[in-house]
Design goal:
Chain lengths: 614, 220
């Protein structure tokens, strides 16, 4: 109640006094340093103001992180803020169709700047060199910079560009919003915006790099514009298009631009100058992609990686949530059906990430020698071995982290008990990847085969069982704890090897605990108790999946008209904290001053019901 | 039966009651199970609960949410504990899932067989004959968010329990009114205060008020 009163007071104050400064938004004006690369990497569009917009959601937290609003700005949409958001972001490009058909546009509606639609490689595009593919329904609003760094701001749903597959396939320019073509009409649906907002904030909270949604604008017929921001929105495919075209100057220009941004944002603090920076780049990119691939695998994140380097950012951040999922279990054989082709599986992601690194090696060689060598020649490149090494190390780290150990214990284990951790990971992986006797079958958007065990469940419950019994648990108990709803009796027929693996799992797990206890000069039960508390948060019963995000979005949209922007943001904050699985940052929900509303209760039950799914 | 009713507050406010529960168990280091009223956000509460109880030398804990499916192995461990603590939260939600997931009768039997059952706020209310105390006063009651129709509690005692009591006119007026509807006393405990039941004996910790047939008196 006190919180609500404060918010009301702040709202009144901001209405009457113009308390807050929104001038930072004016820096987002279409201008962008990418223009200076002079490498034919974008198409420029004029734009006009688009009427009929309503603010569906505004991410106050991100706006604060970027420095667009003051740190002490309340989570309230003031009239001034609303106005500037609509003025800045409610726009539609004046595209080739408009120009060719001389569509009348009132001069007063035309915005002053120009906006880039960037070119990049896309495998689903007829042109396999990236000459005509790229942002098909997006533009870059600009680059925002302040003392907190440089941020790229881009909007999806701002009109049909010439870079969409539809333009190439049909060899014609499309009118924005043309109902005859769905993907390619330049619009974006409201549910896409809301689901991306919720999904990306959950992943961001849990430490995964991702694009984030700053704003969702709503238009009639559930159409939207989704404004997203990230510190560097360059994708590998932005580079790969120049590589495919054999344009070393453009490629170098784009690569230099990317490196410079990483340096400016202090992400790469020790990057050398001159030619050495390319080796540094390759080392860093190898680490980024190996770490990303390992994290995706361990967090069960399905992100369709392929040779084109689309669907992912150069810094390993997730972009374009259309096909991104988080599985509840390790559903190793799920493939997304994209009509023309099936996607890679979660297991194949690693190989694709490694191939992208191989392409980075090819790029560096091309830039340094001016000669483009065949990609196959880089299959034995040092970066490939480096990738494998980092990948394995991150997998080891992730596993001991999931057990519940703190950073100092993880460092100790990886340094001094590496082989023990590796052996344990093998055993863990055996259970994690066990599949149902039921073969591959069709699901709504692809095909899958079920995993059997919920590894979060065993990692959550095992320490407290040891705490109580001070002994290993029985084989059947072990299996029963982690058995998922997909696991049928026929999947659990007598199996001596599995029995041995249960024993081995527990022996290795306890040996790891013993090692940490010895190092910290603690008694074993003290370590186990600490793990009990931490593992209950890390391996929480309720974890969001792709299916649950879809259903949650539907649920929010059902009540959308009843919710104002401030309420949407409160729901977002509450949900994201509920899905915070970091024991070091987890706070009491009371501290958010959020009342658990019926909508939040529905969201919780959706997450719970879909926790093992896709 | 050995029961402890907590009026509310943080774990650190309930030191006396916590120590009494440990003493009732007859064990130096009893095993204590923690059942949250709702799992939502309860991992953090469990962490606080453990930290407080570690100060009393306890070392074996079980975290056992009952509003999502659980394994029977864990349930068996729950019922082997020396003390089971029912946490605070939404009383309706708590009672619904205690019954739905068939823990309700097990806990009654646990208490009847000599296990120590302790409850804080909602956790205390569910141990009484009915959970009516969660429905009033209008300005401070739980929302029946789960649409519960049957308010029958465990009935382990012949009194009702009102937590988070504040010694004020508006609470007193409401509690006097409610007590007129009851055949047994209504004990009201502020945060940190509570009631200890040991077989036929009843003891009060802190400033606990008793409302009976429209009248109020303090128990100590």
């Amino acid at each position: 109640m006190i919180y609500r009163m404060t918010q009301l007071k702040l709202r009144r104050a901001s209405q009457s006094d113009g308390l807050y400064d929104y001038s930072q938004f004016n820096k987002i004006d279409g201008e962008h340093p990418l223009r200076e690369t002079n490498c034919d990497c974008f198409v420029d569009y004029r734009a006009r103001h688009r009427k009929g917009a309503k603010i569906a959601a505004f991410n106050f937290g991100l706006a604060r992180d970027m420095g667009l609003i003051a740190e002490d700005h309340p989570n309230v949409l003031t009239p001034e803020l609303e106005k500037i958001l609509l003025d800045k972001f409610s726009l539609v490009i004046i595209n080739e169709y408009d120009i060719l058909n001389k569509v009348h546009i009132d001069e007063s509606e035309i915005l002053p700047g120009k906006y880039m639609a960037t070119k990049y490689l896309q495998l689903q595009h007829p042109n396999k060199q990236g000459k005509t593919s790229g942002d098909g329904r997006s533009i870059w609003n600009g680059c925002f910079k302040n003392r907190k760094g440089h941020w790229d701001v881009s909007s999806r749903g701002t009109g049909a560009t010439r870079l969409s597959p539809a333009t190439s396939i049909h060899n014609k320019f499309w009118k924005t919003g043309d109902p005859n073509i769905s993907y390619g009409c330049g619009y974006c649906e409201l549910d896409e915006g809301i689901s991306t907002l919720f999904f990306s904030e959950v992943l961001h909270k849990n430490g995964l790099p991702t694009e984030r949604v700053l704003l969702v604008l709503e238009y009639p017929k559930k159409i939207s514009i989704v404004v997203r921001a990230h510190q560097n929105l360059i994708r590998p495919s932005h580079l790969f298009s120049h590589l495919k075209q054999g344009n070393v100057h453009a490629l170098k220009s784009m690569l230099d631009y990317y490196i410079e941004r990483q340096v400016l944002n202090k992400v790469w603090k020790d990057c050398p100058k001159g030619k050495n920076k390319y080796k540094y780049f390759l080392t860093k990119q190898t680490e980024i992609f190996a770490k990303m691939a390992a994290n995706f695998e361990d967090e069960y994140i399905f992100c369709w990686l392929d040779w084109d380097g689309d669907n992912i950012l150069m810094d390993g951040g997730i972009i374009d949530y259309g096909s991104v999922r988080q599985f509840g279990l390790f559903h190793a054989e799920y493939r997304y059906d994209d009509v023309q082709r099936y996607s890679t599986t979660i297991v194949e992601q690693k190989h694709k990430a490694k191939y992208i690194v191989q392409t980075f090696a090819q790029i560096v060689e091309f830039i340094q020698t001016g000669k483009k060598k065949n990609i196959k020649l880089f299959s034995e490149h040092w970066s490939q071995q480096h990738f494998d090494l980092i990948f394995q190390n991150v997998k080891d780290r992730n596993l001991v982290k999931k057990i519940g150990f703190k950073d100092q214990d993880i460092d100790f284990l990886l340094k001094n008990k590496k082989s023990l951790v590796k052996e344990f990971r093998k055993t863990f992986t055996y259970f994690e990847r066990m599949r149902s006797k039921r073969e591959v079958y069709q699901v709504a958007d692809g095909i899958t085969r079920d995993a059997l065990f919920c590894m979060r469940d065993i990692l959550r419950e095992l320490p407290q069982m040891y705490l109580l019994r001070d002994n290993v648990i029985e084989r059947k108990e072990f299996i029963d704890i982690m058995r998922s709803s997909y696991c049928k009796d026929k999947d659990l027929q007598q199996n001596h090897y599995r029995d041995r693996m249960v024993d081995q799992f527990q022996q290795q797990y306890l040996a790891i605990i013993q090692a940490v206890a010895r190092k910290r000069k603690m008694r074993k039960f003290e370590v186990v108790l600490e793990l009990t508390m931490r593992a209950s948060i890390i391996n929480k019963f309720d974890r969001v999946t792709g299916d649950s995000i879809t259903l949650i979005t539907d649920r929010i949209l059902r009540d959308f008209k009843k919710l104002d922007n401030d309420e949407i943001y409160r729901i977002l904050m509450d949900f994201v904290e509920y899905q915070n699985h970091n024991p070091d940052t987890k706070i009491h929900m009371d501290e958010l001053h959020v009342k658990k509303s019926p909508i939040i209760r529905s969201m919780i039950s959706i997450v719970r019901e879909n926790r093992e799914g896709l | 039966m050995k029961l402890v009713f907590h009026g509310g507050g943080y774990d650190r406010d309930n030191r006396e009651l916590n120590l009494k529960a440990i003493e009732l168990s007859g064990e130096k280091k009893p095993v204590i199970a923690y059942i949250p009223a709702q799992s939502y956000d309860s991992e953090v509460d469990f962490r606080d609960f453990v930290k407080e109880h570690q100060k009393y030398g306890l070392r074996q804990f079980l975290y056992f949410p009952i509003d999502y499916p659980f394994d029977n192995t864990l349930k068996r461990e729950l019922l082997k504990a020396d003390i089971i603590h029912l946490s605070g939260g939404n009383t309706f939600h708590f009672l619904k899932y205690l019954k739905e997931h068939k823990v309700f009768n097990d806990l009654k039997n646990f208490a009847k067989k000599g296990g120590i059952l302790t409850g804080l706020s909602a956790g205390a209310i569910v141990m009484t004959p009915r959970i009516s105390a969660a429905t009033y006063p209008d300005f401070d009651c739980d929302e029946n968010e789960v649409g519960l129709l049957n308010f029958t509690g465990m009935g382990l005692v012949k009194f009702e329990f009102f937590p988070h009591y504040s010694n004020s006119r508006r609470y007193d007026d409401e509690l006097k009114k409610q007590s007129l509807k009851l055949k047994y006393p209504l004990y009201a405990a502020p945060d940190g205060a509570g009631v200890i039941v040991e077989e036929d004996k009843i003891k009060f910790v802190g400033k606990v008020a008793c409302f009976f047939q429209g009248k109020k008196m303090f128990m100590n």
